[in-house]
Amino acid sequence: METIEVLALVAAVLFCLAVLWRSTSPAVQLIRDPAVAHSLLNEHADAFMNRPSAGLLTALATWTRGPERNETLATVTYGSHWRSLRSNLTAGFLNPTHLAAVAPLRADAIQDLVTGLSQAGGEEVVMREHLDRAMFTLAARLCFGGDHGLEESGVRAMQRAMDDLSQAMDDTVSFDGSTLGKITHWRRLRRLFGLFGPLFEVVRPLIAAARARKSGDSYVDSLVELRVPNPDVDVVDAKRALTDDEILGLVAEFLATNTGVIVACIEWTLANLVILPEVQRKLRCEIDEAVAAGGGEAELSEKAIRDMPYLRAVVLESVRIHPPSPFVTRGVHDVATGRLRKRLIFMVREIGRHGSAWTEPGQFKPERFLPGGEAEDVGHMPGRNEIRMMPFGGGRRFCPGSNLAILQAKFFLVALLRNFELVPPSSGVDLTEVGDFNNVMKKPLRVRVTPRKLP
Ligand code: HEM
């Protein structure tokens, strides 16, 4: 065959592959309107119970297929396996009695944060560095238990591994859909999955220790004890334990959801409090009054924190305008083949700032969530009759950790405002957003923290 004929043949094959690829690629629909989001997620919840399946690229990157993949709560298909994992987290770990018992761990983390910031001597600090450290220590203790030999060096090694994973995740999500993009995406995915290795090195002995002690109240203890449906055995209601690989995935998910997004929520809130001194002053007044009413205790009670209307309004306004997770996805799959037909992307940021649902949507105005305000009935979860914002998603797969996340953010904010005056840095505060997986401040917030004389 002549060279020219070979080239023509190669071009024809490539053309056919491109047409095939395009014709089999799932359609993508972007949802920006709160009313449309409500109709899809609330009125047709049964049709949108799953996120898009991971697909060919993930299979290539992990060299695994279908049920062999280690599913996490966020990736698993709606069904009995999902129900087991979800009720283990919500009815078990996140139930109010259990959470009350972890209050001392949170108090320790907050105390360390306040001590660290006090040493800054009124100088400018990069708030995220301090918050990341405190929040990660807390998450690791919630995950593995406060007194099971979790060394500081192990916590920091885990934090480094998780930082790399979350950076790789952000690089992977922002993928433009072009053929070149897909190839790059595949390479990024391979890198991403490779990053689980260093995390596993630190976590594997902790899983082994949890298996050996057979009881405990940390998240990893609950995963070791959990039995999930086993469809591979021909026995009614057959169950099996989770493998170490599966537990690793769930641990990574737990650490990720209990750190970066909560830190992002606190950082965005602080940025607005620094820019708007009047809002900061009002919030501090509410905190000082609650502290006085509580007899000046070092940490306010959970009830006192929940009963603070202005704090609630500030946090809601923060997650409305700067949702730490900027989009939520759903997939429509072919019933027979399981292949992804359509990908729906709910643009959480745009929904929370939609002109049809909010007046002056770009302005940070906590008052809108107070009694008499335009959003006095809006909470952090979508209402039954409407969606006006959805920072924690909606429908069947809404975020199970939303209450904990809001509570942790409030406790940290109260401690910071109670102990420090927060003054803008000389360079000002830049609210530019970055990140597709997590929505963070492009320029990490710098603040001058001046210790307060406690009333
Ligand atoms: C400010 C902090 C947080 C934000 C902004 C956030 C946001 C979200 C969003 C938007 C989703 C997708 C919901 C959907 O698809 O409808 C989600 C899912 C999820 N979140 Fe959170 N989250 C936060 C904290 C947490 C915490 C603390 C936990 C665990 C204790 C958690 C565990 C999960 C899990 C397991 C899922 C997947 C649920 C499922 O598919 O059934 N999140 N989160």
Automatic annotation (TrEMBL):
Stored InterPro entries: Cyt_P450 (IPR001128), Cyt_P450_CS (IPR017972), Cyt_P450_E_grp-I (IPR002401), Cyt_P450_sf (IPR036396), Plant_metabolite_P450s (IPR051103)
PROSITE patterns: CYTOCHROME_P450
GO cellular component, one term: membrane
Entry's localization field: Membrane
One example GO MF annotation: iron ion binding
Membrane topology qualifier: Single-pass membrane protein
UniProt cross-references to Pfam families, sorted A to Z: p450
Predominant location category: membrane
Tagged with keyword Transcription regulation: no
Keyword set, alphabetical order: Heme, Iron, Membrane, Metal-binding, Monooxygenase, Oxidoreductase, Transmembrane, Transmembrane helix
Signal peptide (residue range): none
Residues involved in heme binding: 399
Cofactor dependence: heme
Similarity comment: Belongs to the cytochrome P450 family.
Protein name: Cytochrome P450
